[in-house]
Write a structure and sequence with these properties.
Helix content: 25-40%
Structural class: alpha/beta
CATH topology of the largest domain: Aspartate Aminotransferase, domain 2
Number of helices: 8
Mean pLDDT: 79
Number of strands: 9
Number of domains: 2
Distance between the termini: 36 Å
Order of helices and strands: EEEHHHEHEHHEEHEHE
CATH class of the largest domain: Alpha Beta
Low-confidence stretches: 201-265
CATH architecture of the largest domain: 3-Layer(aba) Sandwich
Amino acid sequence: MAQLSQILKQATGVVASRGEGVLLYDEDDRRYLDFTAGIGVTSTGHCHPRVVEAAQRQVGTLIHGQYTTVLHRPLLTLVERLGDVLPPGLDRMFFANSGSEAIEAALRLSRQATGRPNIIVFHGGFHGRTVAAGSLTTSGTKFRSGFGPLMAGVHVSPFPDPGHFGWPTEQATEFALAQLDYILQTLSAPADTAAYSSSRYWVRAATCRQISASWRPAGTRRRARDAAGARRGADGFRPHGQVLAKRCKPSRTSTTRSPTCEALA
């Protein structure tokens, strides 16, 4: 009998039958408060009426127009609207099927544009399950075990996570910057570093831009400044103490895990 692969484990035993706003309902019509929003996919809530109406209208008009074969108006409209809100210099769009594909496109772009081989990632990041994206992933050994050797040219630096280290934010930030500088001294010279990639908060886009345009050293180390010619990775990272500090949030530990859904009374 066919079964789901055991590689991907569910955080709950809920079998969802429908959703409405922030709520999910199981097959017994028990309701749950969904804290994941479909891992960010349903940011307007489950079955928002305008989203449902637009999806139904599109399915009744054109289900799929593969854009290396044909163009279609919704695609062109999306490109125009994204162009209205993206920062200057980000003016080329590449649409992908998954986060892994977006990560790997950004990786290829970074190496191609800079002519540099190395990528620096940060402890605890999840980038995907394909070979290259899995080589960048350090959120768990299950994403990296059993199919080595992994992609070369990847170096891992600590993420300034106060919850993990048990330190104040400032101390965790200083430690992370010092370790990043040490990697640039001993493992990946700035001249060989194409990008930094951090995926702690599941923010993805298949685009890269130069760090130097938005990076402010503010007392950070010299080699980190020398690496400003590297390109910011798919999820963005600026080696700047203030930015690091703002992005620090306590993370789950291996012994405590928040449930995905909480049953309502």
